[in-house]
């Protein structure tokens, strides 16, 4: 199945490593340096839930955004009052309403005057709150104009998207009794989804590292057996162990990663709003997921059905394929197709995570870092790449390119498929906690390298490097979650925290133990060739 493997590797190098740090499904608190705070106009831009009742029966819930001015929205649903909703007359509320209000929430159209003018007129007429309907589907941040002084507003102001306004307007014109409840619940400090996501990331690296180290040790043992065979007239030319199924990263590819990944990220940013392009991403993810899931299942089943795993059949284009591969392929393809069809359902995240984990584990087994020098260059470039596209890109594109792409903001979909995600079960706003493949795969390559070195050097868990690299990764990812919560849910570049922890720990331990030179250049311990040992023994016996 070399064709599928090569396809998935190209896909991984070009796509999977482009995605960011841990990012929540949607920030409920926003800040904006272009709209500075000042007295009377200093509220945070918070998302607001607008629950509706039609003729006494609970109906749709809409989401709006609070204004810089006015009173703040209550955070608890039990403290929010159900208040009748009415239309403004005139509709834009640029002039005082023709009739007095008695505590109703007034809904007005955007346009023709300042937001603060609308709010002041609504408050003077006796409204308890004002809903301003945008003239577009998106939400808009309501700010105060420079030099405004009439900011003593004591009612909350919320903007609704155009489709929500059309729905409510239709209900009111039909003569229905509409009441609304406005509140802005806070996210929990820690959601159980973040705990499970942390366990998934750490567990994926753990499985991938052990598989990679096991394969390397098996290849080394097989090589030793062949070298010990004194009856061989001509020894085979050995390069990298198991080189037919392993791809070592070199210095050039490590440096080019930043350039290629950046170009592909910009391509995604510009084209992901097109349905056809997003569908191409889904197809590519399915191809990689099928290859990953198939490889993992075949490796597991081969342990139980050894004889079947050694039987091969020639298949056109694909060459020699094992019977186990033929047996599991239909299941893997069906699984990926079913996920693609139902990916936007409430359970779609389960299939996405299974395909993603299998793919990452497979890549960690196939793609390898040959030494610490290449690993340092790769992670160093990824460190700069992640920080630039999460933070610095805002100055060029007026938004974080990495976060926009990861969340699929311009695609109309619930995020791109190249992420691990878990629904936020105890979050009143719902959504998902997510982590990019690159934040698992790139550090995972270094962690897998550490375990391969430990096993070849015959180091125990405490004296080796794997345990400490694994702990460093877990701590780095944990710090990412802490930073995420301290930043009110704003997306964070996970490699900003993971790379210093993981790579720094490795470098310091290597220097302290005196292994840094070998780790940096060769990447594997010195090994005495078995046939040399045999020759020495035979020579000693002759002399004796």
Automatic annotation (TrEMBL):
Membrane topology recorded in Swiss-Prot or TrEMBL: Multi-pass membrane protein
Signal peptide location: 1-25
Residues in PA domain copies: 84-167
Keyword Hydrolase listed: yes
Pfam family, one: Peptidase_A22B
Family: Belongs to the peptidase A22B family.
Protein name: PA domain-containing protein
Organism: Solanum stoloniferum
Origin organism lineage: Eukaryota, Viridiplantae, Streptophyta, Embryophyta, Tracheophyta
